[in-house]
Q: What sequence folds into this?
């Protein structure tokens, strides 16, 4: 009997020496995890802003979130402080900035202010001639009868802003412009007293706001989109967010 079974016993032992198929082999030792080295730079930290404001702060096509690249550093700093301290209402911005210092916010503002990036072409939309005429008049001439100075008197003849604290109004989405003028008019947005924009926005009618926003949002940008170095003349109204 043993002689008959011996070949099968030997075959079984030989089978134990055969290599194990790969699918049945034990898992190889885990490789050490690769540590991602993230550069500790201000540009890297500023990526938290570009998730909403678009790559490099150029804005997005959503129609609401504004461009921040190239805006005057003083203006950007004032807005960051206002979001952090509650003068401008936006839960996401407030949470993002709540633990950041004034100096850090100034550095962040300087980073975006220094970016000189091209603007996209303005959108093409059907033009309402009456609204366009009203918008252009308020931007370029104002309305003395209602105590409304022209927008160009503060925001610069080219409408690209004035350093260090007055923003440009070209290259912004129409919906964003409407929302901000409306927020000043209703008190939802505030600035350092005396709050000149709140005063002026309250003198605007809804059709004025729509006309100004529509006209500004469709204007082409000049070749030089940088803010003016200084105002050509004294401001027509006192603004607490603009140093004398």
A:
């Amino acid at each position: 009997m043993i002689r008959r079974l011996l070949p099968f016993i030997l075959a079984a032992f030989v089978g134990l020496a055969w290599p194990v198929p790969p699918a049945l082999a034990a898992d190889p030792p885990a490789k050490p995890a690769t540590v991602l080295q993230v550069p500790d730079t201000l540009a890297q930290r500023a990526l938290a802003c570009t998730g909403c404001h678009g790559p490099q702060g150029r804005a997005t096509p959503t129609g609401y979130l504004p461009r921040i690249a190239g805006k005057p550093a003083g203006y950007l700093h004032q807005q960051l402080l206002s979001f952090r301290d509650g003068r401008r209402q936006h839960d996401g911005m407030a949470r993002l900035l709540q633990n950041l210092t004034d100096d850090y916010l100034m550095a962040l503002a300087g980073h975006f202010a220094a970016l000189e990036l091209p603007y996209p072409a303005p959108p093409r939309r059907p033009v309402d001639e009456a609204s366009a005429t009203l918008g252009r008049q308020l931007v370029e001439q104002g309305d003395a009868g209602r105590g409304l100075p022209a927008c160009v008197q503060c925001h610069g003849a080219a409408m690209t802003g004035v350093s260090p604290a007055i923003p440009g109004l070209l290259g912004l989405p129409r919906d964003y412009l409407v929302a901000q003028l409306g927020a000043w008019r209703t008190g939802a947005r505030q600035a350092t007293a005396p709050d000149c924009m709140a005063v002026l926005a309250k003198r605007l009618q809804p059709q004025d706001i729509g006309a100004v926003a529509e006209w500004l949002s469709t204007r082409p940008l000049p070749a030089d989109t940088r803010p003016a170095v200084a105002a050509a003349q004294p401001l027509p109204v006192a603004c607490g967010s603009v140093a004398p």
